[in-house]
Amino acid sequence: YARNFKKCKAQLTASLYKFYNETIFKNKVWWSMLLESNRYGCACTSKTKDEKRTNCYNSVDVCLMHGTERLRDTLVHEMCHAATWLINGQRDGHGRLWQLYARTATLVHPELPTVSRCHTYNITFKYRYECTRCKNSIGRHSKSLDTERFVCALCQGRFVLLPPEGRDGTPVTSRALTPFTRFVKEQYGTTRSARPDSSHADIMRILGEQFSKTRLQ
């Protein structure tokens, strides 16, 4: 799982859910897992006032889950939230019931880190915006911030997009274009316009032949 985490993430989540449900919650937590979500948390719903503990929807943010340990810890944390609703019928937050299930999880699985109220890992973002006035920065997983509409909450300054960062927080340097890549970038539009019925593969084959001729000259 650790080596192929991206490919096995859904399978690992289902396996851990089944394992925790059997060993900690005695198979009393049924759960609709929204793995492909852009957030993580637990939402509990009921159809009527008399029909409580109907559903519990948990989501795990695929952008935040960069490894097996983070997924493991987040999953058991959210299942403790689900248990307070599905077993006890209460939305407890991080209150007494949630703490009870968190302690139970630690007792049943002492090999796990202590289940705590807040995560202890740093969240890395693919994109960061910086205020041009006070240098305050905010992170996003996509280029979703409209810099024309939104301003800095601290000083009302404008945000600018910084160069992309890697998971270690260092800027990602763009690689220099190869001669062939530069040639394709310059000639693709013209070649495509001259041959509108040709496929992308045909255009690339033609450009490859043209590039080879220029190298021989």
UniProtKB/TrEMBL annotation:
Gene Ontology cellular component annotations, sorted alphabetically: nucleus
BP GO annotations: DNA damage response
Occurrences of domain SprT-like (ranges): 10-162
Top-level division of the source organism's lineage: Eukaryota
Pfam families listed in its UniProt record: SprT-like (PF10263), Zn_ribbon_SprT (PF17283)
Lineage, uppermost ranks: Eukaryota, Metazoa, Chordata, Craniata, Vertebrata
Organism: Petromyzon marinus (Sea lamprey)
UniProt cross-references to InterPro entries, sorted A to Z: HMG_box_dom_sf (IPR036910), SprT-like_domain (IPR006640), SprT_Zn_ribbon (IPR035240)
Name of the featured protein: SprT-like domain-containing protein
Stored PANTHER family: GERM CELL NUCLEAR ACIDIC PROTEIN, TRANSCRIPTIONAL REGULATOR
